[in-house]
Amino acid sequence: MPGIPEAEGLYDRIYAVVARIPRGRVATYGQIARLAGIPNGARQVGYALAALHSGSRLPWHRVVNAVGAVSLRAPGAAEQQRFQLEKEGVRFNAAGRVDLRLDRWDGMSRKQRAR
DNA sequence: ATCCTGACTGTTC
DNA sequence: AGAACAGCCAGGA
Fold first, then answer.
1. Of A4-13, A48-57, A79-88, A103-112, which one has max mean pLDDT?
2. DSSP per residue, chain A
3. A40 in contact with nucleic chain C (CB within 7 A)
4. What is the pTM for the complete model shown?
5. How far is the CA of A103 from the C1' of C6 (A)?
């Protein structure tokens, strides 16, 4: 069939990409969407992650928005995400944002700490 | 099928 | 740098 975008589910593809983000690095929603084959699916990525039940082993905390900030809305959740990232070595600036130029995952190699 | 909501993003001011 | 806007698209009512 000419139109089989996701015979395994859209979310599964998103989760698969998130699972590949190496420790100590972050990726943006748009970046993940693109890697999952969903050009303009940034919101879908957020939607998919929101659908995740607590207890999932997916490294969803490594996902930040386009400006390097945490987009969690639930009170306290954002701080928790930041704490977990800092624990992995990701640094936040005074504005509470990640410097994507330094810690963004290149989407290819799994481990590589440039800088 | 229509409308509203949302863990988004790029452009423009 | 921050705010307003307009696209974007999957769910749920």
1. A79-88
2. ----S-TT-HHHHHHHHHTTPPTT-BEEHHHHHHHTT-TT-HHHHHHHHHTPPTT--S-GGGEE-TTS-----STTHHHHHHHHHHHTT--B-TTS-B-HHHHB--SS-SS----
3. yes
4. 0.89
5. 30
